[in-house]
Amino acid sequence: MTPAARLRKSFFESLDGMPPVDSLFDAVPDIVFFVKDIHGRYMAVNETLASRCGLKDKESAIGLTAEQLFPPPLGEGFASQDKEILKTGHGIRDHLELHLYAGGRRGWCLTFKEAVRGKDGSIIGVCGISRDLHGPHDRQEDFAAMSKAIDHIHKHFEEPLRLPQLAEMAGLSVYQFDQRIRALFHVTAGQYLVKVRIDAACDRLAQTEEVIAQIALSCGYSDQSAFSRQFKQAVGISPLAYRKKMQGN
Known about the structure:
Layout: H1 3-13, H2 21-26, E1 31-37, E2 42-45, H3 47-52, H4 66-69, H5 74-88, E3 92-100, E4 106-117, E5 123-132, H6 140-155, H7 163-169, H8 174-185, H9 189-207, H10 212-218, H11 224-235, H12 239-247
Antiparallel strand pairs: 1-2, 1-5, 3-4, 4-5
Helix pairs in contact: 7-8, 9-12, 10-11
């Protein structure tokens, strides 16, 4: 274990319960925060989630599942997403999806989720945030079209994806598609695809013993050399150095 890992471990073991992260997010009304256990039951939420679900307070959500809190098909979709994270340990980032807004209105959000691990390293739950997407020119049909293309990127990033194909999937020109990606994620469409691939590679390097050449292929690169060059450009260190750093070797 590295000195930094030991310091972090010592700090968190000294805490009296969980840090008050939910209270921090109470002051941010356009972000939903939550922690769930391995059975999908809410263990912590912020005021935004509670109020959108019509609960009198945050404590009323504790022990309930997404299926109990959200109307179909939202609840079932959130639960299915969680089960995949619990099974694989791979989090999700930049997931464009429908959520409940204030007053029960449905709107689009960007969701980020990660697996929660116990002291023995096993997965014991899921935590995440969802940030509202809103603006004077937002249109629901635009987000719906983009959601299909972005989901395709996340599910098929190992394939040779092309921007014209993705733009057509969203019903947009390549220029329009790139502009929507820039507005959502503050990077070009090409940079976003690289980000998704590098994020996936980081998860595999940190959580598995899979050989780097295989990780390169499974993350959409034709060979290890091309992968290593782009990884170092994006992360600042080589894939092997990243693995050693994250695994404390």
